[in-house]
Structure prediction request, 190 residues.
Amino acid sequence: MSDDSGYIQFLAEARSGDRTGMGRLAVLVLERLRPFVFRMTLDHDATEDILQDTLLTMLCRLDALRDDARFWPWIYRIAWNRMQDRLRDRRLRSVHEAGLLGRRSVEGCWHGDASLLDAEVRRETLQQVSCAVSQLNCQQRDLVHLRCYDQLPYTEIAARTRTTPGRARVRFHRAKESLRSQLACCVISS
Prediction:
């Protein structure tokens, strides 16, 4: 993780009502939370929505934070709660839509079944990919996370893994090939 010890100064400025301090704190929070939220949602639009909700909640409840040293756990908990709220809303909406749309048919096609089937296929695919990633060796799994989930360039990956960008690229290519063969095995066995 990057050194962001300056958040205490930004936090103090934000509490005093300084818009510049609020902006700096918001940028710092966005940079740190974006990879975490994206790893959980795997959806750029959902990630941005959750981050906006998190920032809004942070700014509204900033005075409720008693211990500045607990800022990061507090902000991660807010983001986690926003993700859970979004998931709960999506589940309720899909159940509601399935109940309403499943009753209406147009030329024998049940609309609710199509969206539920798409959701089930997506869930199974994500589960297979997650299973395949977990079967990679530790180095390959780290490379996949850094490149795909954190979306880091090869130069940053090289700096974090203490290697060259070219070698990071080769190792990531090999990790993708291993992942591809793991997924092929999963498809054949299921």
In short: The chain has two domains: 1-101, 108-190. Residues 101-112 have pLDDT under 50 and may be disordered. The helical segments are 7-15, 19-41, 44-60, 71-101, 111-134, 138-149, 154-161, 165-189.
